[in-house]
Structure formats: C-alpha cells, structure tokens
Amino acid sequence: MEPQKQSLSSIEEALIICRRSFVAVGVFSFFINILMLTPMFYMINVFDKAVGSGSMSTLTSLALLAVFLYVILALLEWVRSHVLIHIASRLDLLLAPRIYELCFSSESGLIDAKGVGSQPLTDLNGLRQFMAGSTCAVIFDLPWIPLFLLMMFFFHPALALVALVCIALLAAIAVGNQRSTTNSLKKANEMAGSISSRTQRNLRNAEVAAAMGMMTQLTRRWREKQDQMLQVQSQASSVAGGYGAVTKTLTTAMQSAAITTGAVLAIYQEISPGVMIGAALLLGKTLQPIQQAVSGWGSFVTARDQYQRLNDLLSTFSDQKSKMPLPAIKGQLSAKNAFVVPPGGKLPTLRDISLNLPAGATTMVLGPSAAGKSTLIRALLGLWPTAQGDIRIDGAEAKNFDRDEIGPQVGYLPQDIELFDGSISDNIARFGELDPDLVVQAAQDAGIHEMVLGLPDGYDTVITGIRGLLSPGQRQRIALARALYGRPRLLVLDEPNSNLDEAGERALSRAIETMKVAGASILMVSHRQGAMPLVDFLIILEAGEITRQGPRDAVIAQIQAAQKQANQQIHPHPPNKATGVPKIKAVNNPEQ
Ligand code: ADP
Description:
Oligomer: single chain
Shape: elongated
Bound molecules: adenosine-5'-diphosphate
Helix content: 55-70%
CATH class of the largest domain: Mainly Alpha
Number of helices: 20
Number of strands: 12
C-alpha cells in the first residue's frame, strides 16, 4: 500500500476514501444476513417436507444444501472481516502520519493543543481495533432488520406484530442503557487517559522518585486517581452489564413468545409447524444485532469518543504545509513590538520586543532566570506564535515557514537536551538520510569525534531511554553536533554550556567560531562568558522585556557604567543590582 501523500482534515475524508470498501462490506453484509436465514429455511423444510413425507432422500438433499450454504456463509464472514481489517489499516495509514505530526506539534508548542501527549495515537489505535473487531460489524447487520420483519409479515402478520413489539422493547432498553451509561463511560475513559499521561510523565522522573523515596507517595496519588476511575468505570459497567443481561434473557424469552404465537396460529392451522419453529429462529436472528449492540455499548461509546477527539484535533489543526516556498535562509532575525504568550498561557512572558540582528551576526542573550530568554528563542524560531507584533526571519514571518523546509537550515540546541532512540549517527543526522561525511564533520565541529569513536559501537552506538551510557555533558555535545549537522545558516543555542566542563566549553567556543567563519547567524543564551569574545551583539532581557541591546562593547560599557553608578550609590555592596545580569567584564576582541 502506498503511503498517503495528501493530508486529511477529518476522519470523514479518510472514510470517503475508503467508500468502495464500505460498499463491499455492505454487499457482503446483505448476503451474510440472507444466508443467516439458512437455519430457519432448513427447519421449515425439514419439518414440512422431509419429516412430513418421511423421505430420507429429501432430508439428505436438504442437509447437503444447508452444509453448502453454511460454508458460503463462513467464507463471506471471513471476507467481510478481512475487508473491515483492511479499512482499519487504511484509516491508520491515511491518518497516523498527520496525527503523529500533530502530537509533536502540540508538545513543541507549534500548535496550541497542550496536554494531548500521545493520546491521539492511542485513540487512533483504539479506533482501528474497533473497526477491525466484531462489534463494528454489528453496525452493518442492523439495517437488515426491516427485511426480516417483512419476511415475518409474509409468514403471518401476527408474527410480525410480535416481532415489532419485541424490537420496540429492546430498543427502549438500548436507549435506557445509552442514557444511563454513556456519560459515566465517557468520564471513565477520560480519567483513564489522564492517569496514563500523568504516569508517562512521572516515569520520566523515575530516578528522582527512587533516589528521594517518593515512590510510596506517588503510588498513593496514582492509587487514589485509579480508584476514582475504577469506581466510575465499574458503576457504568455494572449498569451496562445489567442492561446486557436483561436484553439477553429477553431475547431468549421472546423466541418462546414467537413459538407460543406460532403454536396458536398452527393450532388454528394458519401456519404449518415448520413455519412456527422457523418464525422463532427468524425472530432470534432479527433481535441478535440489537442484543449485540446493547452488550457492546461500551465499545461504541469509546470508539465514538476516540473518533470525536481525533476529528476535533484534525479539523482544528488542518494541515498548514507548503505555505510559501522557501529559498535558502540567510538568518537575519527581526522583531517588531512582539508580545509572546506561551501556548496555553494567558499572560505574555515577552513584551514589546523589537530587535534587528543582521545575517551572519553572533548574538548573546543575557538575563536572570525566568526573564524570557528561552521564550525569545522559541518565538524567533517560529515555534511559539506572537500574540501581537511580528517576528521575522529574513523578513518573512517565522510562523509561516514550513517546518520541514526551514528545519534543515536551522540548528537548535534546547535547554532540555533530548536525544531520540536510535544510533548516535542517526541522532546527529536528525534521522534523515545518513551522510557519513556530514555526520563526522558535525561531530568534529562539536569536538566529539574521538569521544564517539571510543564508544562500544562508535557512531552506531544505540542510545535508548533517557539515561544510559552517556553523561549529561556527552549528551549535550551530541545534541550540539546534531545542531551543527550540515552547518546550518541559523544556529540557536539555549544554555549550550550548562553541562559542559572546561574542555567542553573550549570545544563549544571552537564550534561557534567555525560556524561564525562559515557565515552562520548565531543566537545563544548563556550565563557563562567563555564565548563572549566571539559575540557581536548583546541583548539584555529582564522580566520579559529587552532592557539593553546593541553591539557587544557598547552594551558592556553601558552595563559597567550602570554598575559603577550603583556601586557608588549603594556602598559597600557592589554587585549587579542595576542590571540583574551577571557581572560583565570588558572583552579583548580576538579580531583586534
Ligand atoms: P528563561 O529562559 O529566561 O529562564 P523562560 O523563557 O523559560 O525564561 O520563561 C519565561 C517565563 O515564561 C517564566 O515566567 C515561565 O514561567 C514562563 N513559561 C515558560 N514556558 C512556559 C510554558 N510552556 N507555559 C507557560 N509559561 C511558561
């Protein structure tokens, strides 16, 4: 099967693509339901023809015919389930890539659907299993009920009336079941989803939990939530179970009602004894899908919720790819009166940001913790949108770029270093097509080539999980190599030296120098000033606002003057109260 190229904005679109398969399922369902009448016709003919005439040969022919029809029925059932499995896999193929992408976009802040985590993928899995399962097939059996009723009518109108009453009774039970269980089943499903995402997040901090003996408390909290969910779920399930049991018993009892009606009609010679038994079997067949629908109601509710959530996600965040063709970027960054609110947040954490950094410049952002430095980086990269004003790369709004196009031209080292499950070379090459020369070049630029060669399988060493054989410093430097891969035009480093030792710092400075010579635009947040000699521009960010910016030496001179003034005023305490940024020394420019 060819993977789907186009991106869909609703499940309906995917279902429309599968319409021919659905028509096939409908046609198979028609023949299956007709063949389901075999036991009834067999019964009528055995009673009225074979037993009535005492003919063994008629009985043998009837039995052979019945066996043949049962074989066809089994084959049709098998093919129908196969087509449903095919539809389910096709839906997955059509929707999974977009949903996978949306999960990532939501976590990175590209779209404002915070907190969905991997739930959409779990939903899609559930929906796929539902479609491939036997409960879904019931939907295709329900439409044939009128056909059976009509047949009943031909046997005798009184039998059709009994069948109608039975259907009405079961339908009323089905509605009661739906009313009393749907909401609680939905709530239980939501609670189970939130417990599972919370557990996933907590598992990431397993080491901290183990080291500080937090397991008992975490288990207690999880248990409380789990108990609440189980309570809601078991209440709903027991109510649904009750309805299921009543439906099942009634269905059986209703067959006796049909036999009784048939017997009365047979006594008055309105119908034959064979038709009497056949009518009971036919009623059983007519009621079967309703009974199955009531017992499988939980699966219907779950599948409907999954469908709804996925549809909402897909239609809210319809594909925004190929917004504009992107020429090779130069890396000029600008912002004009930009306000940025983190996705899901209410207040802006960056206010009235205006800046203009020429292509090829190296800029350092300084500021106290929580000043908004990482937010500025995310906004400049177009990951977080501006609430007001605009942010541009090479004069075009950052948020309008196709991430697949701009991504390879950008190197980004975030504060929380996350490497992906895969080999070191896969990680450095960003999981794209491996170009060994570029991988080695990036590793050399980041100063880790020798370190990687010293690992058990060199570049093929597989990194799994969040911990493992690499120290945080090594992980940071592999992440730096990933950022440097292909010598991108725009390099953005958020605290690139937070885990580095002196050798690492020196390697980082060399990497920045290499990139600078290659003409890249570099933007970095750092508290240490090892790379200061390479910096062209300084931006000082405090409480979400830029307080100073400009060429490095001019800004340093301003800060020093402010510090001096503050020292004179608040004697004898010297430090940086006036700026809120680390004390900055003048720099001897290496180029001078
Ligand atoms: P810095 O990098 O300077 O330490 P950040 O940019 O990480 O600061 O954070 C700036 C402010 O934005 C902080 O007050 C922080 O609480 C808030 N913030 C950061 N990320 C988010 C987020 N995802 N949702 C809501 N608020 C956030």
